[in-house]
Amino acid sequence: MKIPKEKQAAFEELYTPTRLVTAQTPPAFIFSTSDDGVVPVEASVEFYSALKKAGVSAELHIFRHGPHGVGLGEAMRCWTNGRCSSRNGCATRAC
Predict the structure, then answer these.
(1) What backbone phi and psi angles, to 5 degrees, belong to 81?
(2) In this structure, are strands 28-33 and 58-65 parallel, antiparallel, or unpaired?
(3) What is the pLDDT along the chain (95 residues), one digit of tens a residue?
(4) Are 65 and 94 in contact (CB under 8 A)?
(5) CA 95 to CA 93: how far, in whole Å?
(6) In 3-state terms, what secondary structure has residue 20?
């Protein structure tokens, strides 16, 4: 999704997770992939850092490969018995 330049600041203010973290933010489990084509993995690292700075319990897992949203819905079918399979573009091998 391409945000028009004149609307970028307002969009970032509303939707950038690091800007919304407070001490009351619930604990978080963050699942990311290094080659996500939508959200750079650095955003997950920044979010994790903001949570820790606010004293919020957080866990961050970064996998080498996997498309955006791999941990949601249909993509989860490739996960079996707590291990990930490489078929269907599922995330593989922790970094």
Answers:
(1) 50, 40
(2) parallel
(3) 677 888 888 887 787 888 889 999 999 999 899 988 888 899 999 999 999 999 999 999 998 888 877 766 554 455 444 455 544 445 444 43
(4) no
(5) 6
(6) helix
